[in-house]
Design brief:
A two-stranded antiparallel sheet has the order 1-2. The protein has helices at 17-28, 41-60, 62-66, 75-100, 106-114, 131-149, 158-186, 190-209, 221-226, 234-252, 267-270, 281-291, 295-308, 310-324, and strands spanning 262-264, 273-275. It is mainly alpha-helical. The longest helix has 29 residues, at 158-186. Helix 4 (75-100) packs antiparallel against helix 7 (158-186) and helix 6 packs antiparallel against helix 7 (158-186). The structure holds benzoyl coenzyme A. Benzoyl coenzyme A binds at residues 49-50, 53-54, 57-58, 61, 88, 119, 121-122, 141-142, 145, 148, 209-213, 218-221, 224, 230, 234, 288.
Length: 331
């Protein structure tokens, strides 16, 4: 059993006050916590949960866009989309590796996903109906992801923070390719612009939900911020995203589907910001609990991929074992 978190800094077992205070002092001094360092069990569990969910989101997130690779409207679009989907696969792998440094296995995390015990982002339970959905995912979903993930580059846990640096660079490219698709559609025919508006109408609210419940309803934010895993609250990041995105929609000539949205001078400490209308949290929780349009398909697709890949994992392990005992000559 992985027990380093239960050994206090003073060498005694159990999470003594001294140990917890010394750990918090390291966090407050902006020291990075590394896998071999003593850490409270709650800190370790929070990271395993968040990094695991994040990794699953990247892998499940390949499905809605992968669905359009064969139908991309040009070779250039196909090459960019293929590269983006592959990038998401890479992000999942860095994140599974970061979580593994905390004493869990990728097999175990995958089993939890397939059994419905581990969550992944609600956003990936919506279907991609038209090509404009691919533009909108890049623009809004990757845009929201960047807003959430840039602060994670300063997360107190070293392996997670370091993984996020490369991920954010790639997400930034993804966001631009999405916005460029939207720009092209919005400068195209009336039908193309209508397709872009329809996609924005369907993806706007689910994108706002990506940031998680309002702060007052968020069970983990307070502790995660004290541990500097999260640097901003869910509502703070959602507001930053809205303020950055509404002018982008205006530039495209599209309308954000929120009749209550208005500029409010009082927001952001008097700097002003866009006040949004009520979010349908019943829909959010229905989707998180498995009742979204695509939940069953997503898990079925991941289960098939995991089952179909069993022979590859077995062969790779057998090959590695033979190499380790010198029975296979190095190529
Ligand atoms: N969907 O106390 P809270 C991507 C859950 S992938 C589902 O605020 P926390 C991309 C939450 O887990 C984007 N569940 O939690 C990939 C918790 O349940 P549990 C993924 C959600 O952790 C491909 C409960 O609600 N990004 O970028 O402090 C293509 C209470 O919430 C959601 C990440 O994972 C949701 N949207 O804050 C394109 C980033 N929101 O665990 C793009 C890393 C909340 O107690 N994660 N829940 O059962 C985070 O930053 C935080 O985990 C969250 C939630 C802000 C998401």
């Amino acid at each position: 059993m992985y027990s380093q978190g239960l050994i206090g800094a003073d060498g005694r077992t159990g999470e003594t006050e001294t140990f917890l205070a010394a750990f918090q002092a390291r966090i407050d001094a902006e020291e990075k916590i590394e896998p071999k360092d003593a850490m409270p069990e709650g800190y370790r569990r929070t990271l395993v949960r968040q990094i695991g969910q994040h990794a699953h989101s990247e892998i499940v997130g390949m499905l809605p866009e992968g669905n359009w690779v064969t139908r991309a409207p040009s070779l250039r679009r196909k090459a960019a989309l293929l590269a983006k989907v592959q990038d998401e696969g890479g992000h999942g792998l860095y994140l599974y590796s970061a979580a593994e440094t905390l004493g869990v296995t990728r097999d175990g995390m995958t089993e939890e996903l397939l059994a419905g015990k581990a969550k992944y982002s609600s956003i990936f339970n919506y279907p991609t109906l038209t090509w404009a959905d691919i533009g909108t995912i890049g623009w809004l979903v990757d845009g929201a992801a960047i807003m959430n993930q840039i602060p994670l580059c300063r997360c107190s846990f070293g392996p997670y923070a370091r993984a996020m640096i490369r991920i954010c660079k790639e997400e930034s490219f993804h966001q631009r390719q999405g916005y460029e698709i939207m720009l092209t559609l919005c400068r195209g025919t009336r039908a193309q612009k209508a397709m872009a508006q329809d996609a924005l109408d369907r993806w706007w609210w689910p994108s706002l939900m990506m940031f998680g419940p309002h702060d007052a309803e968020s069970s983990h934010t307070e502790q995660s911020m004290a541990w500097k895993i999260k640097r901003f609250s869910n509502d703070e990041l959602r507001q930053k995203f809205i303020d950055a995105t509404v002018p982008q929609a205006e530039y495209l000539g599209l309308k954000v589907p929120d009749p209550a949205m208005r500029w409010d001078e009082a927001l952001n400490g008097g700097k002003g910001g866009y006040r949004h209308g009520p979010i349908d949290w019943d829909e959010f929780w229905r989707v998180v609990k498995g009742e979204g349009v695509m939940n069953r398909d997503r898990i079925a697709a991941r289960k098939k991929a995991w089952d179909d890949g069993a022979w590859v994992r077995e062969a790779a392990l057998a090959h590695a074992a033979k190499r380790a005992t010198g029975k296979v000559a190095a190529e």
